[in-house]
């Protein structure tokens, strides 16, 4: 009998096979048997043009953005230096500081790599 891998999401040892999928009964995570656990852990963030972004990249805003709680927003062409990628569950995957606004999280579809 072969040893089944632990769940890559929660680490549970109670995984089982269903066709060509592994399933975790504790967190309901499903993953392919041929997928490596490292590929699911890496965060891939692409800009509006499809270019892959990395930590420390410089980006440019491609659309006027309203900022909640601020009378001014972020204008088209604003350059942002040294972004940090985060796993935002609501689509805000870029953590950065914008001059005049402060620390903010942005969605990847509103920026392009500089």
UniProtKB/TrEMBL annotation:
Residues 3-32 form the Protein YjdM N-terminal domain. Residues 45-113 form the Protein YjdM C-terminal domain. Belongs to the YjdM family. This is Alkylphosphonate utilization protein. It comes from Arcobacter caeni.
